Amino acid sequence: MTTRAYNFCAGPAALPEEVLKQAQAELLDWQGRGLSVMEMSHRSDEFVAIAETAEQDLRDLMQVPDNYKVLFVQGGASQQFAQIPLNFLPEDGVADYVDTGIWSKKAIDEARRFGNINVAASARAQDYFAIPGQNDWQLSKGAAYLHYCTNETIGGLQFDWVPQTGDVPLITDMSSDILSRPVDVSQFGMIYAGAQKNIGPSGLVVVIVREDLLGRARSSCPTMLDYKVAADNGSMFNTPACFSWYLSGLVFKWLKAQGGVEAMARVNHEKQRRLYEYIDSSELYNNPVSRSARSWMNVPFTLADAALDKVFLSGAEERRLLNLKGHRSVGGMRASIYNAVPLEAIDALIDYMKAFEKEHG
Ligand SMILES: *Cc1c(COP(=O)(O)O)cnc(C)c1O
């Protein structure tokens, strides 16, 4: 018998057990066709149906308006950092970026290779523990777009509001909080997310882009990086990440069965509430992020004495609480509590943290 541990990995992250079981059941023989999804032509009726169903389910879950394209592309969220300016920033234009941590900073550094980037706001002055309010942002006149990251996966800093930029399209990296709570897609020019946090396996990026923004890519933009090419070809200009796409589709079905994004938001709210409440009440653990900007998905915390980190982690592993080690750049701990991490996992983590505090606090 296999026993699944509770997995708090930041990414690639936990997947719903039901989804893995279904993939396992279908692995050798998908729906009586005598082959696995990994072995199908991406042009076959079977795979095209898998792909279209996944897209429709995602559209339903996020209520994506009809004037948006949904793309399933590759290269990770990191490739989007280059792809965005290549598609939307004219060579003599300027784009606004908001710096709230490591991922938005990476997006800024990459975009700078392609043009004039204005950092309209930075959380650096607040040690990345709070998000500067929009009144303090220095927006450019006539910016091609504004880019920000809704949830900083490493710092555990999340927007609970949407910037207002008038006609300037908002482009946002939702890699680690897409589908965790409702969003109004119509407020965005483009949303993108690497799959391996809150969607499915790695190798796939979901892009939701407003149609009128397509067709603006620079002439030097590689064909494969032009969103219009992906859109015109149903994300099959070349061979897509078929298995990741299929598995993500199973996750979308699972999300629908859970009651959709609103239902996930209720559970996610409770998960983060219990964990932060315990951290705040304890003497041993600390999370420094200002309350209104605390992430629902990634909860970094430190122990009062870093010498206890190793002991904490090995005790956690003994209890089958996996991947709690913080990002190598910041240390400490981090519990990533995406959609597929159930409330029971949070309770098991808190039980362990309490017992550990009793022993070492
Ligand atoms: C993980 C992550 C990325 C990078 O994703 P890759 O698919 O590894 O390129 C970018 N942005 C955010 C917010 C992330 O969490």
From TrEMBL:
Residues engaged in binding L-glutamate: 43
EC number(s) reported in the record: 2.6.1.52
Binding note for cofactor: Binds 1 pyridoxal phosphate per subunit.
Sequence positions bearing N6-(pyridoxal phosphate)lysine: 197
Gene Ontology MF terms: O-phospho-L-serine:2-oxoglutarate aminotransferase activity; pyridoxal phosphate binding
InterPro entries: Aminotrans_V_dom, Pser_aminoTfrase, PyrdxlP-dep_Trfase, PyrdxlP-dep_Trfase_major, PyrdxlP-dep_Trfase_small
Amino acids binding pyridoxal 5'-phosphate: 77-78, 103, 153, 173, 196, 238-239
Broad class of enzyme this protein falls into: transferase
Keywords: Amino-acid biosynthesis, Aminotransferase, Cytoplasm, Pyridoxal phosphate, Pyridoxine biosynthesis, Serine biosynthesis, Transferase
Cofactor names: pyridoxal 5'-phosphate
Subcellular location: Cytoplasm
A GO-annotated cellular component: cytoplasm
This protein's pathway: Cofactor biosynthesis; pyridoxine 5'-phosphate biosynthesis; pyridoxine 5'-phosphate from D-erythrose 4-phosphate: step 3/5; Amino-acid biosynthesis; L-serine biosynthesis; L-serine from 3-phospho-D-glycerate: step 2/3
Catalysed reaction, written as an equation: 4-(phosphooxy)-L-threonine + 2-oxoglutarate = (R)-3-hydroxy-2-oxo-4-phosphooxybutanoate + L-glutamate; O-phospho-L-serine + 2-oxoglutarate = 3-phosphooxypyruvate + L-glutamate
GO terms under biological process: L-serine biosynthetic process; pyridoxine biosynthetic process
Domain spans labelled Aminotransferase class V: 6-349
The keyword Amino-acid biosynthesis belongs to this UniProt entry's keyword annotation: yes
Record note on quaternary structure: Homodimer.
Family recorded in the similarity comment: Belongs to the class-V pyridoxal-phosphate-dependent aminotransferase family. SerC subfamily.
Biological role: Catalyzes the reversible conversion of 3-phosphohydroxypyruvate to phosphoserine and of 3-hydroxy-2-oxo-4-phosphonooxybutanoate to phosphohydroxythreonine.
Full protein name: Phosphoserine aminotransferase
Gene behind this protein: serC
